[in-house]
Amino acid sequence: MSGQDPQGPGEFAPPPPPAPPAPPAAPAQMPVPPAPVYGAPAQPAQAYPAPGAPAGYPAPAYPAYPAAVPPRGLLPWVLGFLIVIPFPFAGGLASGIAMAVSGGSSLRAGGTARENARAARNWGLTYLMVSTLLLILHFVLLFVLTSQSPTTGFYPLGIPITVYFALSLAHLVIVIIGTVRASSGKVMRVPFAIPFLRA
Fold first, then answer.
1. 54-83 pLDDT per residue, tens
2. Dihedral sign from CA coordinates of 153, 155, 156, 157
3. 112 φ, ψ to 5°?
4. What's the pTM?
5. What are residue 6's DSSP bridge partners?
6. What is the rounded CA–CA span in Å between residue 73 and residue 44?
């Protein structure tokens, strides 16, 4: 009997019920990071895509900033390079003065920075004092020895200026060593510097 055959007088069979609609597809869900468990070992950080970002693309990366370098007392030693100023005697005086007056923040920082700043100040003051005395002695000898008659030789008039240039060369070497040691976080000590500032 077909579905259109009468069941009784004037009656037809009802049509079959329609198939139920398919459930909608569940939307893709973002992975949820696990809740932290206190006392448990730290889990490695996972990168989750940004909301709305297409799947398969990496999460945006953020730049990693380097850790802050602790103060090392480098500036007073670097200022010692003012000795290379190409003016007669001005570079040496500027170098000694700059080393003597700089490094206040390094002294307040303590530790290696304080020791390097103190050593640089002591050496800067020592170099400034000795080089100034040598220059004064040179000009005093110049006036004393040449007041009666002109001198013909460089020595003995040139002894103070020769010692001055030797001291300036030693100063440049000490500044280079001090800069290298301070930049690597070590303490630079100049044993023959006059200890104007004590620890």
1. 555 555 566 666 666 667 788 889 988 988
2. positive
3. -60, -40
4. 0.61
5. 12
6. 38
